Every structure is written in C-alpha cells, then in structure tokens.
Amino acid sequence: MGGDSSAPRIDPSVSHPARRYNYWLGGKDHFAADRESGDRIEAQFPAVRRAVLANRAVLGRMTRFLAAEAGIRQFLDIGTGLPTADNTHEVAQRVAPHSRVLYVDNDPMVLAHAAALLTSSPEGRTDYIEADLRDPAKILASPQLRATLDLSQPVALMLIAVLHFLSDRDEELAIVRQLVDALPSGSYLAVTHATMDFLPEPQRRAAEQLLASGVADTWPSTREQFGALFDGLELVEPGVVALPEWRPDGEVAAYDPADINMWAGLARKP
To answer: The whole model's pTM is what?
Structure first.
C-alpha cells in the first residue's frame, strides 16, 4: 500500500469530504468538524443524505454494468472514500471474481481503514494508494498501479463524486484527459458530479453562499461542462442523466431533481 501508514496525517479539526460523506451515509469514521460541516450543509439542503445514497447506488449499478455487460475486469477507483458496504471490488467480484481494483484517495483515514478495501476474492486483486486526484502523473506512475492493473487491457476509470472537489473546471477537464489518454481502447470512464442545474434560484443562492463561506467544498458543473468530460468517448445509454435515471433497477421512483443535484454518465473509449 502507498503512504506511511505508521504516521497518518489526520487533522480532526478540519472537515474532510470523505469523512463527511461517511457521516451522511451513517458511518462511524468522522470527527466533530465533519459532523458540523455536514449539519450546516444539511440545514440548507435537507435532502443531502438522499443524494449521497443515490450516488452510492449508481456506483453499484455502473460497476455491475461494467463487469456483467461490458466485460471489464480492471477498475481504477479514484476518490474511493471510506469503506462502506458494496465497495467497487465487492460489486465487481460478485460478477467476476478475478476482477482487479486499484483504489486511490488522499485522506489518511482511508489509508488507516484500507484493509477493508483489500478483501479481494482469491482469484482477483485489490490494492490501495494514498495519492491526490490533482496529481494524475503520480497515480499513473505508481508501482501499485503497474502491479494491479494491466494498462494494455481495458480499464474502468471510476470518478464517482470526486471531480466536484476541484474548483477549476479547466483543471478538471485536463486531469480527466490525462487519465483517459493513459488507458487503452475499450476502457470506460464513469463519472458523477454535483450540479446546480436543478436548483430553484433561492436554493442556488444558498449553495453559492455556502461555497463562498468555505462551508461547502463541492464545485458544481453545468450539464454542458459535465458532458465535455466525455468528449471523444462513446456515451453508454441513457447518456448524461440525473443519478436516479442512470439504468435504474426497475422503474424510476418519483423524485425531485433538486433533491439529488448530481449528473451521472458513463462512456467507452473507442
């Protein structure tokens, strides 16, 4: 595993997205700062827990599609977050036990709990590196990546609810391009991303105030900006849609798009 596990650099006084997400999912790996940040955001957006649950569900659906229908056996999951139920390798290896998954995250607490991410099937393989999405070159050059994934064969790049922590949309696009360019034909890009496109004006102003004050740290994209991430790739049906609309298990239950506020998309590299 990457990083120095003997001296994790955890600052409990500063909220971290992975720990706040864990708090909203009902987990136990968070500090007072994470709960305070989460509660302040939830006060403005009471449905935020519904959104993170919808995001977790679409991760499962995308992973199952990739393993069962697209025949993908390798996954690069960046922005892994703290382990919960149905991590990417668990979903993929239920379909194809020899699937190989490399997890990447920059929260030392994820490193501290990485053993839960490394419970691979005997036939498959999982590994974890502590690295930052903002340094794709380090990720691509890591020994763990070369040991876990064969970049001559298709890989699913999973960027689930992570790109919106980048405030610069041009930087976001450049990072995705660099990562996708390193993958062979037949690979896939799976992305979910926060948006304000569905918000009525009062809620939009409230969201902008949370960003400006530093309470929120998710930088939304428009549908056009989100769609640009897939330029040059072949979008899988149903294309760019709100989370609950992406290949739902059965009929889509009634929901308010303003409660979810996230786009989802998956595309194949030709």
So the answer is: 0.86
